[in-house]
Amino acid sequence: MHIRAVKTPCYACLRRTGRQATGLGVAMAGKRMSMGTIDPTIMAQIRQDGLLREGHFSFRSGRHTGALLDRDRLLADPGFASHMGYTIAKRFFTDKVETVAAPSIWGAGLAQWVAYFLDPRAKIVYATPRDGEPTVAAELEDLVHGRRVLLVDNLIVSGETMTGFIERIKQRGATIVGLATLWNVADDSVAGHPAFGLLNSIYEAFPAENCPLCQNGSPAAIEVSY
Fold first, then answer.
1. What is the Cα Rg of the chain in Å?
2. Which of 14, 128, 149, 178 could form a cystine bridge with 174, CB 3.0-4.6 A?
3. What b/e string do you get for 99-114 counting C-beta neighbours within 10 Å, with b at 16 or more?
4. DSSP string of 105-161?
5. What's the pLDDT band for 14 if we cut at 50, 70, 90?
6. 92-127: pLDDT as tens digits
7. φ, ψ of residue 179 in degrees (nearest 5)
8. What global pTM score does this model have?
9. Nearest to 102 by CA among 148, 136, 76, 138
10. Domain 11-223 falls in which CATH fold?
11. Where are the domains positioned within the chain?
């Protein structure tokens, strides 16, 4: 039996990085995007393990991409999931996040890791369906009310789920400091909030009419069910 080791960043290292970054002040803003970058060795391992397949794919949002992510198996691996959470946490490290909220149970696992690596560690809440809408349990609403909240989901596909969740979080008096996901295959902004997709800097999602794969004569896009 082959056991693979995936290095998980240490919490103390992230704390030191954050303190140094905070001291950079305004200059930090220009480097925010580079902070949310996946280690190339991790990406190579994800491909090798078959968790990301390259090709030509069409999502329900109508956008085309050059890859398909096995979102469930990826987050089932603690090594990969913790690295993804760590990288997203770095992206929002100076935003004073108090609570990380997920609109679905599928995003809750990733949200846990993001909250863990923030400094100070943030609280975590996730929604469950109620009357067909993602709803935070009443006993957890104090973790949202008046708080600085980062919204996290495993994927943003059409933006519909996140849009409804944004409205409910705002209704509870929260300040939304950002949206984050492994991969955003919807519009760049959701309900007026820029969406940070961890994989988007590597595999951009294009409107079908602007898809370079289509324009370059690649085989027809494979339709994805989500």
1. 18
2. 149
3. bbbbbbebbbbbbbbb
4. HHHHHHHHHHHHHSSSPPEEEE-EEETTEEE--GGGGGGTTT-EEEEEEEEESSSHH
5. very low
6. 999 999 999 999 888 999 999 999 999 999 999 999
7. -120, 140
8. 0.82
9. 136
10. Rossmann fold (3.40.50)
11. 11-223
